[in-house]
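Run log // design_07
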């Protein structure tokens, strides 16, 4: 049983009229195909990167895994739990740090984390909450209102929220966008520690040096298609240089040549 399994995932966003009409009018037209036949697995304990340019489909794929978006075709599972038919177990096995900053401005940091713990049935979770807060440099912000935090601090809270129920699989969608060097370091130290303790990590980032130094295996998406899936070592050996060089080479390669990526 894999930590993450994706089988022939396709996702077409239905076309919507703009403005308020989009809320009421039925979809019409072919829609936009954001993912095409994406298949791969991530094993337990891996530190895995999902890379690709803006609009490649990374967040769409993560939304499918989190149960926020239904795949048009294909199956996805977390720790053997189908994300559609066994949604609750799949969701319990997963912690997601979303790309967008979403928060409730009326609660403090600690309240936010207690509420999140409650969603997963944890009543007395303060020891673990304190440990997360300390590791993310948030201890002195615990009683501050969410709306009073800076952007980088809010992102730290999103990371904390994803961890409150100690999920075996953690997905981070660009967790270091807009955060300072200090948090980057402490965040990766903490996440690496969780990885060494057995948690599976799936990460998206545009900072390729982060993926290069942290991840054992890497998948690359281009316009919704899987165009590379290999160990970091093997990808680096392709150019003999950095991951950024390998990434540029793969992205510039003709799609026909990269279409047959083995899952
Ligand atoms: N709700 C939606 N309705 C229609 N199209 C969408 C929707 N969400 C995403 N898309 C489109 O799907 C494609 C993939 O978007 P996605 O957000 O998955 O990309 P991404 O790889 O995460 O990019 P980025 O690096 O910028 O975060 C884009 O062309 C985007 O415009
Ligand atoms: Mg994204």
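design_07 sequence
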């Amino acid at each position: 049983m894999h930590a993450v399994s994706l089988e022939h995932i396709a996702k077409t966003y239905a076309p919507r009229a703009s403005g308020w009409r989009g809320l009421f009018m039925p979809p019409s037209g072919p829609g936009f195909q954001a993912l095409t036949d994406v298949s791969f697995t991530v094993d337990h304990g891996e530190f895995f990167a999902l890379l690709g340019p803006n609009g490649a489909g990374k967040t769409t794929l993560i939304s499918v895994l989190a149960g926020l978006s239904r795949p048009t075709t294909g199956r996805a599972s977390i720790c053997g739990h189908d994300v559609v038919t066994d949604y609750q177990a799949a969701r319990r096995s997963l912690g997601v740090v979303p790309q967008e900053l979403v928060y409730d401005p009326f609660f403090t940091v600690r309240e936010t984390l207690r509420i999140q713990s409650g969603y997963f049935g944890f009543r007395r979770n303060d020891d673990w909450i304190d440990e997360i807060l300390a590791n993310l440099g948030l201890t002195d912000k615990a009683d501050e209102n969410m709306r009073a935090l800076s952007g980088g601090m809010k992102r730290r809270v999103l990371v904390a929220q994803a961890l409150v129920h100690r999920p075996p699989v953690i997905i981070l969608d660009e967790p270091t966008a807009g955060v300072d060097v200090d948090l980057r370091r402490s965040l990766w130290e903490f996440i690496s520690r969780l990885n060494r303790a057995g948690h599976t990590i799936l990460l998206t980032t545009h900072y390729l040096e982060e993926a290069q130094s942290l991840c054992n295996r890497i998948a690359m998406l281009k316009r919704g298609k899987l165009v590379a899936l290999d160990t970091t070592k093997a990808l680096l050996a392709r150019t003999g240089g950095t991951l950024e060089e390998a990434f540029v080479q793969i992205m510039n390669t003709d799609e026909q040549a990269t279409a047959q990526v083995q899952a």
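The radius of gyration is 19 Å.
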